[in-house]
Design goal:
- There is one protein chain.
- The protein is α/β, with parallel strands linked by helices and 317 residues long.
- It folds into two domains: 6-54; 61-311, 2-enoyl-CoA Hydratase, Chain A, domain 1 (Alpha-Beta Complex).
- Helices cover 49% and strands 16% of the residues.
- It is built from 14 helices and eight strands.
- The protein has helices at 9-26, 34-52, 57-64, 72-79, 121-126, 134-149, 167-171, 174-187, 202-209, 227-234, 241-248, 252-257, 276-293, 299-311; strands at 80-85, 98-105, 108-115, 154-160, 192-201, 213-217, 221-223, 263-265.
- Strands 1, 2, 3, 4, 5, 6, 7 and 8 form an eight-stranded mixed beta sheet that branches.
- α6 packs parallel to α8 (174-187).
- The radius of gyration is 21 Å and the shape is globular.
- It starts with 8 loop residues before the first helix and ends in a 6-residue tail after the last helix.
Length: 317
């Protein structure tokens, strides 16, 4: 069953009417309602297109967090064959917020990793809502070092509100683990591509998104802190989250202008949650193109290009 966001209520009403008319038609009623269904469907599609063409940053935040948006395992099922996950950081424990392993992407062997938020209460708790502890980032380092050893490209799928802020995570060196994971990204001698598929939150995202090519889905967000967190700090009022979202420039469109990301992956009309299969396919096409663009570069060229890309962020030309 489709779930609607608050600002989608006009669309929900139109689509509910369409469903009612289809139910009547399915009962074999003699009423000629086919034309009315077609008219309402066209009206709903136009309204949806107009709405999503002018989403505010806060509305995009809501879309990026939509519970029915495809998550890491959905992308793996749709894009990766022969996926073999690896568990544990070989130091402390297994962290299920970050999932990673090896498989084949459109004929080429790759390392793939990313945050998994979960799709129901049980899996959300198991994966800690995609918020990793230090062992998750140390597992990511382990995966990247293996990929580098065997010359495999690395694909990272980003979807996290941020690294887990608990006391236990801090006691085990959260900041150090994030820094080492970021350094492992920069040290890779193979191409790496990151796609922000939902939320890209703070160092929890950067730790595995310091890549040759950083892409964002059309309605995803990427920022140093959540709009609620920024509002709490700046105005001591989380209710001003909409103001914070607008001021922080967290949308893919803003970040492309600033040179923070390298490209935007289009989403199906109404967001990835409305047509996950199509959204996953579009992301796969963008990943393939990004990997192809790095295909002829040597290990040193990849490292230098990656470093130059991030050092250039925020500098005036």
């Amino acid at each position: 069953m489709r779930s609607y966001l608050d600002f989608e209520k006009p669309i929900a009403e139109l689509e509910a009417k369409v469903d009612e008319l289809r139910a009547v038609a399915g009962e074999g009623s003699g009423i000629a309602i086919g034309e009315e269904i077609t008219r309402l469907e066209a009206k709903a599609a136009k309204a949806l297109g107009d709405l999503y063409a002018s989403l505010t940053p806060w509305q995009k935040t809501q879309v990026a967090r939509h519970l029915q948006r495809p998550h890491f395992f959905d992308y793996v099922r749709g894009l990766i064959t022969d996926f073999t996950p690896l568990a544990g950081d070989r130091k402390f424990a297994e962290d299920e917020a970050i999932v990673g392993g090896f498989g084949r992407f459109r004929g080429r062997s790759v390392c793939v990793m990313g945050q998994e938020k979960g799709s129901d209460t049980e899996t959300r708790l198991r994966h800690n809502f995609g918020m990793a502890r230090p062992e998750g980032y140390r597992k990511a380092v382990r995966l990247m070092e293996l990929a580098d050893r065997f010359g495999l490209p690395v694909i990272s799928l980003i979807d996290t509100a941020g690294a887990f802020p608990g006391i236990d995570a801090e006691e085990r060196g959260q900041a150090e683990a994030i820094a080492r994971s970021t350094d492992a990204c920069l040290a890779l001698g193979t191409p790496n591509v990151s796609v922000v598929v939902g939320e890209g939150g703070s160092g929890g995202a950067v730790a595995i998104a310091t890549s040759n090519k950083v892409l964002m889905l059309e309605h995803s967000i990427y920022s140093v802190i959540s709009p609620e967190g920024a509002a709490s700090i700046l105005w001591r009022d989380s209710a001003r989250r909409q103001d914070a979202a607008h001021s922080m420039k967290i949308t893919a469109q803003d970040l492309l202008k600033f040179g923070i990301i390298d490209g935007i992956v289009p989403e199906p009309l109404g967001g990835a949650h409305r047509d996950p299969e199509k959204a996953i396919g579009l992301a796969g096409d963008a990943i393939a193109a990004a990997l192809d663009s790095c295909g002829n570069m040597s290990a040193d060229e990849l490292r230098n290009a990656r470093a130059d890309k991030f050092l250039a962020i925020g500098r005036k030309v």
